[in-house]
Amino acid sequence: MDATTDRDRDDEGRARQDRPRDELGRPLPYGTQGVDPVSEQPLPPRETIAAARDLLRQGRPFSAHEVLEARWKSCDDVERPLWKGLAQLCVGITHARRGNAVGAGRLVQRGAELLQAYAGPTYELDPTALISCARDQVDDLR
To answer: Which pTM does this prediction carry?
Structure first.
């Protein structure tokens, strides 16, 4: 079976964002107008933070997660817990908005654990405040 006919994949078989999606990352039928996809290319740290914040303000936590995930998958080992933890907070918010309170709570907890143990550069972020904000958003949607 050809992998490109089964799912949106590039020539190497990696998943790509060709299918339209709604603001919470749910796939829409082909031919439907969805939100603009975010770049899968990693951005420098401060640009990643700015892009993720902007997407969160737009009500697009899934897209914010994708921006953070691109950074986490390309950064050095020291910073990986920061970017992965932030991405998990965004996915937790996504799950809460989709109505999955259990999954939301679990993902926010995983992200919180990574961020609480992280001792590297934070790029002027306040991990404790971000964890609290994500938990509040999840609790508000339960």
So the answer is: 0.84
